[in-house]
Specification:
Strand content of chain A: over 45%
Low-confidence stretches of chain A: none
Mean pLDDT of chain B: 95
Largest interface: A-B, 19 and 21 residues
Order of helices and strands of chain A: EEEEEEEEEEE
Number of strands of chain B: 11
Number of strands of chain A: 11
Distance between the termini of chain B: 36 Å
Mean pLDDT of chain A: 94
Distance between the termini of chain A: 41 Å
Structural class of chain B: mainly beta
Number of helices of chain A: 0
Order of helices and strands of chain B: EEEEEEEEEEE
Helix content of chain A: under 10%
Largest sheet of chain A: 6 strands, mixed
Oligomer: heterodimer
Radius of gyration of chain A: 13 Å
Shape of chain A: globular
Chain lengths: 111, 111
């Protein structure tokens, strides 16, 4: 099955700086890569996703890049704000339903 | 839209008791997922329904776990008998196209 590795496990950034989280996947057939944000006591919330036919996607301060050759994808958050503090999960899927999740990155934005 | 609704939000029970978790998916979504989240194992898919039919239950840990979806607006996950190692946060998610939307979760504690 698919194996997704996520780094780093924790990330502390100064407010206004950028944050980058990286994930690698094992199954070259994976074609859908969502990112989720989970705040304390809440369920994961989809923040951005990318499909294998696209190399980069941006939504305001959030961007995701995908390198299919190297089998890795990254989440970039620019101009970080305190409300960006949360746990972020990457995931990959090679079919129409099963998501394999990374272990998560705890992001702390220091004011 | 109210999003995915789960109940109860918290459940504390004694070992050996039956536990039933409930989920109401987003109206119009035809796919429903049950996940379990623990510190040790992260987010794990337990079972996936499409059009009320269980498609993939390979993640269900053992016979003590069962899930049903009697109609498009309701699903249950039952644990009988419960054990301390079942303590976790259980999430329900629903999907219309590609994106999975998670509920707020049920925090289960088995003493």
């Amino acid at each position: 099955g698919e194996n997704v590795e996520q780094h780093p496990s924790t990330l502390s950034v100064q407010e206004g700086d950028s944050a980058v989280i990286k994930c690698t996947y094992s199954d070259s057939a994976s074609n859908y890569f969502p990112w989720y944000k989970q705040e304390l006591g809440k369920g994961p919330q989809l923040i951005i996703d990318i499909r294998s036919n696209v190399g980069e996607k941006k939504d305001q301060r959030i961007a995701v890049t995908l390198n299919k050759t190297a089998k890795h994808f990254s989440l970039h958050i620019t101009e970080t704000q305190p409300e960006d503090s949360a746990v972020y999960f990457c995931a990959a899927s090679d079919n129409d339903y099963k998501l394999s999740f990374g272990a998560g990155t705890t992001v702390t934005v220091r004011a | 839209d109210a999003g995915v609704i789960q109940s109860p939000r918290h459940e504390v029970t004694e070992m050996g008791q039956e536990v039933t978790l409930r989920c109401k998916p987003i109206s119009g979504h035809n796919s429903l997922f049950w996940y379990r989240q623990t510190m040790m194992r992260g987010l794990e898919l337990l079972i996936y329904f499409n059009n009320n039919v269980p498609i993939d239950d390979s993640g269900m840990p053992e016979d003590r776990f069962s899930a049903k979806m009697p109609n498009a607006s309701f699903s249950t996950l039952k644990i009988q008998p419960s054990e301390p190692r079942d303590s976790a946060v259980y999430f329900c998610a629903s999907r219309g196209s590609y994106e999975q939307y998670f509920g707020p979760g049920t925090r289960l504690t088995v003493t």
